[in-house]
Design brief:
This protein has eleven helices and 13 strands. The protein is globular, with a radius of gyration of 19 Å. It folds into two domains: about 110 residues, Enolase-like, N-terminal domain (Enolase-like, domain 1), CATH 3.30.390; about 220 residues, Enolase-like C-terminal domain (TIM Barrel). By secondary structure, it is α/β, with parallel strands linked by helices. The strands form three sheets. An eight-stranded parallel beta sheet has the order 4-5-6-7-8-9-10-11. It has a three-stranded antiparallel beta sheet with strand order 1-2-3, sandwiched between helices. The chain has a two-stranded antiparallel ribbon with strand order 12-13. The structure holds magnesium ion. The site of magnesium ion (MG) has 6 residues, from loops.
């Protein structure tokens, strides 16, 4: 039976403006794919990050120009498919991810099995964190209230008022916090002071404290830091991982950076080989992207899969997220429904 492919752009709006050290947005345009074969439809999502690639218009152009070739891609052979995708779309990781996800979803439906089973994973997932983006201090109490059901918060820092942010958060809650600096601390001295300070604030780890091109500084910081360091902007694709030994304790894997589930699973295997702790993360995404990444969830020590619950309205239903508890479905493929 032959394949057909449809795509659409969906504007997804966040409950609060989503601000990190380098950007601030209150909505995102994502590209949704529907890859159909008879009664089955595989879903995929591209949520391009400006840090790594061009926006959704570029993805639409690539889809239009390559539609026939896409429909010839292998449903069965994921490794060969990844090679094909990287060759066709070398600059667009989120499009690779969307296509790889749609093909995996279709494959799972053909097999009549959920993807987590196909990947050798289990349904035992740790609790996901909920992200508190950067904001004016006056908004922080409302954000902490919005997150009241979530036991673990991930705080975005990397501003010139980090201490004020932490003070405002700690005035509201004594929950476990994880801190993501998004490359925001530029000198080793600042980063050392930050790590020492946050270790006193019941913080579990420090994510990407310094710019990715300052890996030597980060390795020096790790010698000193009382908190574990987790790579995000430094941990983009599988080939990045061996070079992070000595600089980090863990790596954050995201579909939109690495190009899909095939590469994400390779990164999981490489992380095991090099003894890194694994975090699975996301961009602001719908339940399609989140459900896809969750399939590998049991491999992770930390989950940060909250992109869909940051949305005012999610156009899809998948794994769900009740107070940080993500529930993998026992349905073929990803089990996505349109809401
Ligand atoms: Mg991060």
């Amino acid at each position: 039976m032959s394949l057909s492919l449809k795509w659409s752009v969906q504007r997804i709006t966040t409950k609060f403006e989503f601000k990190i050290a380098r950007s601030a947005e209150s909505y995102y345009d994502v590209v949704i794919l529907e890859l159909s074969e008879g009664e089955f439809t595989g879903f995929g999502e591209a949520a391009p990050s400006k840090r790594y690639e061009k926006g959704p218009e570029a993805i639409l152009e690539l889809l239009s120009a390559n539609k026939n070739q896409i429909l010839e891609i292998s449903v069965e052979d994921a490794e060969y498919r990844q090679e094909q995708l990287e060759h066709m779309f070398p600059q667009s990781y989120s499009l690779q991810a969307a296509l790889d996800t749609a093909f995996w979803d279709l494959y799972g439906q053909r097999q009549g099995k959920p993807l987590w089973k196909i990947f050798g994973a289990t349904q035992n997932l740790v609790t996901s964190s909920y992200t508190i983006g950067i904001s004016d201090l006056s908004v922080i109490p409302a954000k902490i209230k919005e997150a009241i059901d979530y036991p673990i918060l991930k705080i975005k820092l990397g501003t010139d008022y980090d201490h004020d942010i932490m003070r405002a958060i700690r005035a509201e809650t004594d929950k476990v916090l994880r801190v993501d600096v998004n490359e925001g601390w530029k000198t080793l001295d600042d980063a050392k002071r930050g790590a020492e300070w946050l270790a006193e604030e019941n913080v579990e780890f420090l994510e990407q404290p310094m710019p990715s091109n300052q890996l030597d500084d980060i390795a020096q910081l790790r010698e000193f830091s009382p908190l574990p360091l987790v790579a995000d902007e430094n941990s983009v694709r599988p080939q990045d991982i061996p070079g992070l030994v000595g600089a980090y304790d863990g790596i954050n894997i995201k579909l939109m950076k690495c190009g899909g589930l095939t590469n994400a699973k390779e990164m999981v295997d490489l992380a095991h080989k090099h003894e890194f702790d694994i975090m699975l993360g996301c961009m602001v995404e719908t339940s399609i992207g989140i459900s896809a990444m969750s399939q590998l969830g049991s491999y992770a020590r930390w989950l940060d899969l909250d992109g869909n619950v940051l949305l005012a309205k999610d156009p899809y239903r998948g794994v769900g997220n009740q107070a940080g508890e993500i529930c993998l479905l026992d349905k073929p493929g990803l089990g996505i429904e349109i809401t």
